Amino acid sequence: ETQELEEETQELEEETQELEEETQELEEETQELEEETQELEEETQELEEET
User: How many other C-beta atoms lie within 10 A of the C-beta of residue 34?
Assistant: First the structure.
């Protein structure tokens, strides 16, 4: 019983680790996309000012 619980705990910790890494990657991607959006908004603003 204890053995089973320890194995389950181990598996859950590994899954948690994987999810944290995925979350980290997604946060980095989100950051990049926000920066791109910012750049595009600035470009749009410049274009609107030109017309």
Answer: 10
For the stretch 1-51, pLDDT in tens is: 999 999 999 999 999 999 999 999 999 999 999 999 999 999 999 999 998
Show me where the domains of the chain are located.
1-51
**Phi, psi at 46, each rounded to 5°:** -60, -45
Q: Report residue 9 as tokens.
A: 């705990």
Cα–Cα dist 35/2, whole Å:
49
In whole angstroms, give the CA distance from residue 31 to residue 45.
21
Q: What is the pTM of this model?
A: 0.74
24-to-9, 11, 32, 50 alpha-carbon distances in Å: 22, 20, 13, 39
